[in-house]
Design a protein that fits this description.
By secondary structure, the protein is mainly α. It has 2 domains: 21-198, Up-down Bundle (Growth Hormone, Chain: A), CATH 1.20.1250; 218-400, MFS general substrate transporter like domains (Growth Hormone, Chain: A). It is built from 15 helices and no strands. The protein is globular.
Length: 409
């Protein structure tokens, strides 16, 4: 038998980069889109005030829009898993959000704003699970954390730039709101263009058409337990605008009303800076340690923040600690929930999984803010934030014990 001549091995294949054109495109789209809607959100209360609208209308506008967006996320995730190409749905969602937000400037009554905001948030809900599925499909399982952390970091940079832009645009336009809302089209259309032309969608096999309930039962048991942990945590995870209100109230006796309000806004900007800074760091940790443990640590930090509100004397320095902790834990929460979800569920079901997760988070946001606000009004801050701390700890314990099942991805 003749000796075979060994064939020399070729050069080692380079590892796929996690920061590819799709991750970059989605990250930049998140930045520009958030920049656009933060401009509109920042000036919306003042715009409604020019119509003589009461505060209840603002609550109704936000509540209806968030609720519609949450259920649109679930429907979009379920539907788009059945498509061979998801990207056109994402582009359409960005365009609907862009024109819905810009149409605020045409409003002459509160119900016009409600309709425009609902339309904009419908587009936002439709695009969210699709964007996350496209992002997960563009990287390896080992780099989910960094990819989702980068996207969250870019999104939060938009949340920092948006309010600052709104302030300067309002001054430059002599407080004329229609042209200001029209200006939001520029960053939002850039976002849609980035998704259309920079994001590259991989070939995929669509999921066969089956009922929503059957699709939900097909998702791994570990994912369903994950939803319970997320739901528990979310039921206590109040909107951080309540921290602005708390800081304003508690700092007023020492600083006066005007300075206290300015200090509270500055603290919230600091909160967003730490959110942006730690989103990528959280993703880096997620790729090196167990995602369930990193997420549990973020949940536990939220509990420590709530405990600090109850136990510590509320001064400028303790509020700085509270707002910084809030920014860090939100960065960990949002980055790790998405990357852990991608790890728990097979790629063919990512749209469905991200849609249901977003709906659970949306319902949790609604419940938490209503309950915390009611407890605060009725029983005081100790009861309100004590309620949150208990749910934060419960969520941390549940998620710490979770492990991906073999074959989940």
């Amino acid at each position: 038998m003749k000796n075979e001549i060994p064939v020399p091995a070729g050069p080692p294949q380079p590892k796929a980069r996690w920061l590819n054109r799709t991750v970059l495109g989605i990250g930049l789209a998140s930045l520009f889109s958030d920049w656009s809607h933060e401009i509109a959100t920042t000036v919306l209360p003042a715009f409604l005030a020019t119509m003589g609208v009461e505060a209840a209308w603002l609550g109704l506008i936000e509540g209806v829009s968030d609720g519609l967006s949450s259920f649109a996320k679930m429907a979009s995730g379920y539907y788009t898993d059945r498509l061979r190409r998801r990207k056109p749905i994402a582009v359409l969602g960005y365009l609907v959000t862009a024109f819905g937000t810009a149409s605020f400037g045409l409003a002459t009554a509160a119900w016009h704003v409600l309709a425009a905001r609902a339309c904009a948030w419908l587009g936002r809900g439709v695009r969210t699970p699709v964007r996350k599925a496209l992002l997960a499909a563009s990287v390896t399982k080992e780099t989910y954390g960094r990819a989702f952390g980068f996207e969250r970091m870019m999104d939060t940079m938009g949340a920092i730039v948006g309010p600052a832009s709104a302030f300067f645009l309002l001054q430059a336009m002599d407080h004329r709101y229609p042209p200001l809302f029209a200006m939001t089209l520029i960053p939002s259309l850039i976002a849609a263009g980035l998704i259309a032309f920079l994001v590259k969608e991989k070939e995929r096999l669509p999921v066969p058409h089956i009922s929503f309930g059957e699709r939900l039962r097909m998702l791994p048991a570990a994912y369903r337990r994950f939803l319970v942990a997320v739901g528990l945590f979310g039921a206590g995870d109040f909107a951080h605008t309540l921290l602005i209100l708390l800081a304003t109230q508690k700092l007023t006796p020492a600083l006066g009303a005007a300075k206290a309000a300015s200090a509270a806004v500055a603290l919230y900007v600091l909160h967003n800076v730490f959110y942006a800074a730690f989103a990528f760091a959280a993703g880096w940790l997620a790729d090196r340690f167990k995602k369930s443990h990193v997420l549990a640590a973020g949940y536990f930090l939220a509990a420590l923040m709530a405990a600090a509100i109850i136990i510590l004397p509320l001064t400028v320095w303790t509020f700085t600690l509270i707002f910084v902790s809030g920014g860090i834990y939100v960065a960990v929460e949002e980055t790790l929930e998405d990357s852990f979800c991608a790890e728990l569920v097979g790629a063919e079901h990512h749209g469905m999984a991200f849609g249901v997760l977003a709906t659970v988070n949306g319902l949790g946001d609604f419940v938490s803010s209503v309950v915390v606000g009611a407890l605060w009004t009725t029983f005081g801050t100790a009861a309100a934030f004590g309620y949150s701390a208990v749910l934060f700890i419960a969520g941390a314990i549940l998620v710490f014990r979770l492990q991906p099942q073999s074959g989940g991805c």
